[in-house]
Specification:
The complex is a heterodimer of chains A (414) and B (252).
Chain A: H1 3-13, H2 32-41, E1 62-68, E2 71-72, E3 86-90, H3 91-97, H4 111-114, H5 117-124, E4 130-134, E5 143-150, E6 158-167, E7 172-181, E8 186-195, E9 200-207, E10 214-223, E11 228-235, E12 240-249, E13 255-262, E14 269-278, E15 284-293, E16 298-307, E17 315-324, E18 330-339, E19 345-354, H6 357-364, H7 370-387, H8 392-413
Parallel strand pairs in A: 1-5, 4-6, 5-7, 6-8, 7-9, 8-10, 9-11, 10-12, 11-13, 12-14, 13-15, 14-16, 15-17, 16-18, 17-19
Antiparallel strand pairs in A: 1-2, 3-4
Chain B: E1 3-12, E2 15-25, E3 30-34, H1 41-49, E4 55-62, E5 65-66, H2 72-78, E6 80-83, H3 95-109, H4 117-130, H5 135-138, H6 148-162, E7 166-170, H7 178-191, E8 197-201, H8 205-210, E9 215-220, E10 223-228, H9 231-239, H10 242-251
Parallel strand pairs in B: 3-8, 3-9, 6-7, 7-8
Antiparallel strand pairs in B: 1-2, 1-4, 4-5, 9-10
Helix pairs in contact in B: 2-3, 4-6, 6-7
The chains are: A alpha/beta (414), B alpha/beta (252).
The structure holds adenosine-5'-triphosphate and magnesium ion.
Residues 41-42, 85, 170-171 of chain B line the site of magnesium ion (MG).
Amino acid sequence: MSYSDQAAGNLLNHKLPDYRDEDWKYTHYSGFEHYKKLQTSGNPIAHPPLARRSTTPFHEDAWIAVVVNGILQANLSNLPNHSTGIRVAKLSEAISDDSGLEPGYSPGALALAKGHYYSQWAMAQGAEGLFIRVNSGIVAEKHLLIHTINDIQQPQQVLPTHHLIVLESNAALTLSETQEGSGEGMSLSLQEIHLSNQARLEHSQLQLWGNEFECIQQVLVAQQTESHYAHFAYCGGGAKVRNQLTVMQEGQLALTELTGLVLPGVGKHVDNQTLIHHQSPHTSSRQRYRSLVAREGTSVFNGKVYVNPGAQKTDAYQHHASLLMHETAVSNAKPELEIYADDVKCSHGATAGMLDAGEIHYMRSRGLSEVQARMMLQEAFVRDLLDSLPGESLRLWCHNHCSDRLNVLNQLSI
Amino acid sequence: MLLEIENLRASIEGKEILKGVNLSVPAGEVHAIMGPNGSGKSTLSSVIAGKDGYETSGSIRFDGQEISDWEPEIRAREGMFLAFQYPVELPGVGLSSFLRACVNERRKHIGQSELDASSFLALMREKAALVELSQDLIRRPVNQGFSGGEKKRNEIFQMAMLDPRMAILDETDSGLDIDALRIVAEGVNKLRNPQRSLLVITHYQRLLEYIVPDRVHVLIDGAIVMSGDRTLALALEEKGYDLVRAEQEVSS
Ligand SMILES: Nc1ncnc2c1ncn2[C@@H]1O[C@H](COP(=O)(O)OP(=O)(O)OP(=O)(O)O)[C@@H](O)[C@H]1O
Ligand SMILES: [Mg+2]
């Protein structure tokens, strides 16, 4: 049975999550049934017209994959050639020529068991996406950028994508994504990532959704011995966004670093859920999330850490800080630690608050306007996170995007 | 008159702190304000600088213009400077980028061109030398982790950078060690000129030996009750505020 048939079967046992599900308490998509109907009744969009090019090219010497509504646009991309040991292809192509899909790395290997309702649904649709593989021992000499564009043809359309990313042993890759979509649509994104022994993936995702656009994303990562996964989430847009990041540290000495910068807009909602499953000894994880929430906006952060009984010497750290730009801004942050081993180091912390009036006054009394003062303090709050982005031009681009966004949100939040 | 305050009253949370302050500082002069703890000296400087949260009446004229309704940043850009009694730490905000923004706002406001990076750096080096502020502090976030004395020195450095027409120094001397007091006071003296006025709030005569005032005012319970020349500070040092209170009783 194909993975999509299995997913369709799994769906029969799932119901649409709603507020009664603990995991979906803050963020649920009651309109999804309606979305689904639209999607399944219409014809699948094989080659959507490219309404516009991505607005976010980083001028960096990088490989680029342009993906429109899940479909790789080879003519707009600059892909690594065969000799590099890196393959970037359509998921369906990789499945049909099945050159690299060892059973452990087949689509659904992680998501059939761990995927939530929406991921199962995406697989059941046979969602298209990318297959990325870095061969054993290959250290990618350039960044790989994925420009994802969701181009909706009708309101409330849901656009599923499914990427499968495999780094074989000792392979290394820096992967950055920009995710765009506007109008009243929804992106449903599933990513399955396998890191073999000593593989290293630096993965940045920049979500640049329009004000009315919604997103449900699940990233599932399985890490083998001494592998390193670094993830950077920049949530700079969207009406309602739900990101789930699940990391299974299956091998010893696996290291996971999650960094998140979340900027919900006025009246908008962004929910980040992380789960790090320490399954082996000597694994470590480090999570730093920060949110800056505009007027009537909401940020949700739920950070789960599970430590298996055998996972001694686990070292897990988690911190969440939020800065509320207005009294009506909301931040819900919840750490969830389940620890079944006794020789571990797990710590977590959270802070939330507004900017200090005394600091703002001090800055104004030296000649800065209120907005300038706020911006400077907010930029100081996010700077070190942004500085950890890989690549000069990506970092600079993201700093600028963040400043522009803060400027707009401040004008609307004062 | 560069600064002219008339019948200034200020309350906070229903409590009246300033009860009719009258004060005039001509251009180029240095005036000192002394007074017991809690008499309203810092409140007076905050109100002049435009801090929110006070209910005020009366008038504050700066170079002839009524500034009571002005935002604090406008006062600053016009050349009003307050060195805080308790300078505020700005977590993560680098001192040089902060000051560059402040200096350029002031320059734009008064029709001067903004400073580019290299001329700004040169200016910083020159002014840091004036108060012997170490380059290490300039590279750090504003006041973050600075010692008490370093914060005070940093206030005068910022004053030098902003080139104000009127500067209020609220207990800049407290927290400075003996050498630092001399260095900072000498720095302030170098900033004296016929156009710039200073209002120096202090508890101690010692500062006034370095920064010699033209007038000394005594603020008690929200009003200036006595003014005199620099010898008043000496008399106060000797006799304490009973000197003023006794004279008030005699005159009433
Ligand atoms: N926010 C406030 N709410 C209530 N009372 C206040 C507030 N701020 C200041 N006060 C009071 O106003 C009075 C004057 O305070 P201020 O700081 O101006 O005194 P000061 O003369 O500067 O004293 P010091 O010499 O100790 O610095 C004090 O009694 C103080 O407690
Ligand atoms: Mg005081």
